[in-house]
Please model this.
Amino acid sequence: MHVRCCAYILNLCVRHGLDELRTLLEPIRGVIRRIRAVSSAKRIFKHKCDEYGLRKKVIALDTPTRWNLTYKLLLDAIAYRDILTDMYNVSQASDGQFITNDHWSLAKTVHDVLETFDNATHIFSYVYEPNIHMMILECIKIICYQANLSSQPRSFYQETT
Model:
């Protein structure tokens, strides 16, 4: 099997897993979409960044075809967690919907898993140097990480699916 085929297979596996989690991560995506689309939300985001002492940043949106954008979205969202939580909870309070610590716990877990896959994909994608030995090592890391993850409780995921 070609190493590049492994990267493609890994991509298919990650995309399938993210499809399963799409609705669970939707509140975080929703607030980021709102900040990017609505000028008043952009102003509030900038004001809150100043209030929290953070640099204003444009958080990338993800797409279903590029899972690594979900990884980058979660990386930025976790850094701006308090601001995004405040903005979502204020805008959705009338509907009784809130971003909770469980949402952020899931986001952190998904981010950590995607980080493992992102590292592996970069190694699988090397072109100008032999990397089969590194590919095997990355596959072992993924297997060990998944084994460790599967031993942890998954109550939030099970309650919401």
